[in-house]
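Researcher: Re-running this chain for the archive, since the previous output was lost when a drive failed. Same request as before.
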Amino acid sequence: MSRPRTCQVREAAVVASVVAGFAVLHRLGTSYGATHEERRSMLPGDDIVRHPQTVATHARTIDAPPEAVWPWLVQVGWHRAGWYTPRWVDVLLFPDNLPSAPRLLEGFSHLAVGDFVPDGPPVSECGFVVRDVSPGRRLVLHSTTHLPLSWRRRGRRVSWTWTFVLSPVAGGRATRLVFRWRARTYPWWLTAGVHAAIVPADLVMSRAMLRGLARRATSHTGRAPRLTTTGQEVGIRQPTGVEQ
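Model: Regenerated structure tokens:
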């Protein structure tokens, strides 16, 4: 085989490997941990972004009942409890973030429809609005602000939902947590960027968030907190030794 022909074959192999690798990352970035049925099922909040260009569904079984998982979920947010991602992720990508909380925090045990969950400094005006909440069962967040403020002023748009659904499994001793995000973006190059960068990165981010949440919920000692009808916890015990 001639040298030019050999080079062409090698280049084609490299391109094919890159494309295949990206396809795998993209697939995992939209479906890691979720079953086929979970990916296809309708979830609360799916009607908010009616024609999404991007949908990702992730899931994890947590060895703790929903009432023990919920207090950790409801306190998420910027300069609240964080998003339970590893500290190196925050330092590298989000240097303004505080470390994710290793314990349940006072004052962040309740969310209601219409509440604002910040996801950046106040100057960014970035965050989620609570669209649906049922303590111990589901939390639906919606954002139109997850773009730089200057971009939004120039007509760039995003509509983004985060849905968390908690279902008891193993006779109520464990929780199946399904997390789905749906997004519609404008213009086209922003949508292309979501698929090229955000979706593959979500394999790391969402997996780390669910893992961090699970570690905290399963480290909770003693009886799980009892939820009132408004989502307030009764008899919270502070956990120890939670890994970052």
